[in-house]
Each structure stands twice: as structure tokens, then as C-alpha cells.
Amino acid sequence: MLTKPDALTLLAPMLRVRPELQDYCRLGAGWRSPHAAEATGWAAFHIVVRGACEVERPGQPPVRLDAGDVLLLPHGDAHVVYGGRGRHAPRPISVTDRDYIRVKETHGAAVETELLCGRLHLDLTTEHLLLAALPHVIVLHLTSAPTLGCCGGLVGAIRDELEGDRAGAAAICRDLASAFFVIVLRQYLDDDPPVRGLLALLGQRNTALAAAA
């Protein structure tokens, strides 16, 4: 007997999530990294592999992130990521360009925080109701959700590829990140199911097909 597709199966191809890893950050002491607003159709993200940091949008209180946390800014808002607040003056951050990613480091300080940063391209979202339906900030805690256990392995695999910098690393990281964010979207819908709007319709099997159409 055939079953109707679940909400995520319909949602993922509609969003056509294409992650772009931009920065592998290895930072310590005090540091501050501003990020400009993304162009329409792009969402920003930060994955904390190690340590902790804070993320602040203009006019909004900071959001603290610890190891295993993922922050997604679906609307690509401008923001600042920083660490070591109150302990040290911000150190300069050096940037080393590889073929497929930037490595950011604070030299002269022990590495306390590691981040994977980048953006997601959401195709056809200029007039797409799905993008408007997502909140400005989504935070998921990989370590506290049993169903996200596999995400830790994906993040570790991405980090290992970046550290090894071997042939094919860019393609492998891109595919791993794609799987990672489909799982993240699924967990977000499971943890905080919307009660109204398009995402609420997608969350119900009996209305998902009509909403997708």
C-alpha cells in the first residue's frame, strides 16, 4: 500500500537547499567577525564544532551558541559573531584562502572555538511563501536531541575533510552539508511544528500535497 509523502519530502525539493561552506574558523581569546546581509534567496548559518560564541543581529539580543549548536538565519540578516567578550580586546583574524573555503584564525592565541560557517541558497524564493514562513532565527542543539545524533557524525566528517584538504574534499563537504541541513529542517519541524500558514499545511499528510501544489 502506497503512503503519502511526509512534509519534509515535499519541503526539501521545494526549498532546493544548496549549502555553500565559506569559512572554517579556528579562533581563540577575544575575536569579532561581522557578516553583511545576504542577497535575496540566501540564508546564513553557523555550526559550532568546538567551544562557544555569541551571535547578534542589529537591535536584537545576542544568541549564545555552544559546541553542537546550529544557528540558521533563513532571511540572511546581517549579524556579528564574537567570542571572549569581556576577557580580551578583539584580536585580528587572518584569512587563508583555499580553492573552496576560507580558513580564519586568530594567531597567537590557543584555539578555543571552531566554527563551520556559510550560507544556503534557496532557489525560487524571491516570491516564495516558504521562505517568508520561516522565522528570522533557528537554533538547534545537536547534543540534546537524540534524533540528531547522526548530525554530529556529519559535522565531524566535514571537519575532517577540511583538515585533510585532500582531493575531492569540496564535493564531499558539499554533499555532507546537504544531508545535514535536510536533517536540521526535519528536526526544526518536529520540535516546533507550526500551527498556521503554509508550513502547518505541509506538516499534515492530508494537506501536504495540496500545499505543495
In words, what does this structure look like?
This protein is 31% helix and 30% strand. It has six helices and eleven strands. It has helices at residues 7-15, 129-133, 149-164, 169-191, 198-202, 205-212; strands spanning 18-27, 31-35, 42-50, 52-56, 63-66, 69-73, 79-83, 94-97, 102-105, 113-121, 138-141. A seven-stranded mixed beta sheet has the order 8-9-1-10-3-6-11. Strands 2-7-4-5 form a four-stranded antiparallel beta sheet, with no helix packed on it. Strand 4 and strand 5 form a beta hairpin. Helix 3 (149-164) packs antiparallel against helix 4. The two termini are 23 Å apart.
List its salient traits:
213 residues, alpha+beta, 4-stranded antiparallel beta sheet, 11 strands, 31% helix, 30% strand
User: What spatial form do the alpha-carbon principal axes imply?
Assistant: globular
* Average pLDDT: 79
Order of helices and strands: HEEEEEEEEEEHEHHHH
- Lateral strand order in the biggest sheet: 8-9-1-10-3-6-11
Quaternary state, please? single chain
How many alpha or pi helices? 6
The description of the largest β-sheet is:
7 strands, mixed
Helical proportion? 25-40%
Low-confidence segments, ≥5 residues, pLDDT <50? Answer: none
Number of strands: 11
Compute the CA-based radius of gyration. 18 Å
Structural class: alpha+beta
Share of residues in strands? 25-35%
Distance between the termini: 23 Å
